[in-house]
């Protein structure tokens, strides 16, 4: 049956592998799917035996996986924006001025365009506080002397 499809078998295999990549992401099946599509294009353009098509697919799959590993970011590589999805952690160590007092250990501080919930010692408005920790969306602060 597959031999009846000719080059279209490679296009079908490539499509199945690309859909499987969507269902189980990991960017490995992507490269095999692209290799199958290129093999189908090659088989469509040039009349090849099925053995040559399989060898071409194997070679293209190896090349595609090696190229894919080169262009994909390595896991664990340091990011140029390490706090992108962890904004509160990026405030640790910074000093801010209270616009409103901390009462009962709880208050709020404006940082850029956002108002953050803070926990720390009771302080009057105008005091400087240093962020010492982040717990979810709550910043833990301590008074800055001077």
DSSP summary, beta strand count = 5
H/I helix tally: 5
Strand order of the largest sheet: 1-4-5-3-2
N-C termini distance: 83 Å
| Share of residues in strands | 15-25%
Overall average residue pLDDT: 87
Question: How does the overall form come out from the CA principal axes?
Answer: rod-shaped
What low-confidence regions span 5 or more consecutive residues with pLDDT below 50?
none
- Helical content (DSSP H or I, runs of 4+): 40-55%
Provide the number of structural domains: 2
Query: How would you name the oligomeric state of the polypeptide chains in this document?
Result: single chain
One letter per element, helices H and strands E, the order comes to: HHHHHEEEEE
Major beta sheet summary? 5 strands, mixed
Whole-angstrom Rg: 29 Å
Helix/strand/pairing category: alpha+beta
Describe this structure in words.
It is a single chain. By secondary structure, the protein is an alpha+beta fold. It folds into two domains: 2-71, no CATH class; 87-143, Nucleic acid-binding proteins (OB fold (Dihydrolipoamide Acetyltransferase, E2P), Beta Barrel). It contains five helices and five strands. It has helices at residues 2-5, 8-23, 29-45, 50-71, 87-90; strands at residues 95-97, 106-111, 114-119, 128-135, 138-143. It has a five-stranded mixed β-sheet with strand order 1-4-5-3-2, with no helix packed on it. Strand 2 and strand 3 (114-119) form a beta hairpin. Helix 2 (8-23) runs antiparallel to helix 3 and helix 3 packs across helix 4 (50-71). The longest helix is centred in the middle third of the chain and has 22 residues, at 50-71. The protein is rod-shaped. The N and C termini lie far apart (83 Å). The model has no long low-confidence stretch (mean pLDDT 87).
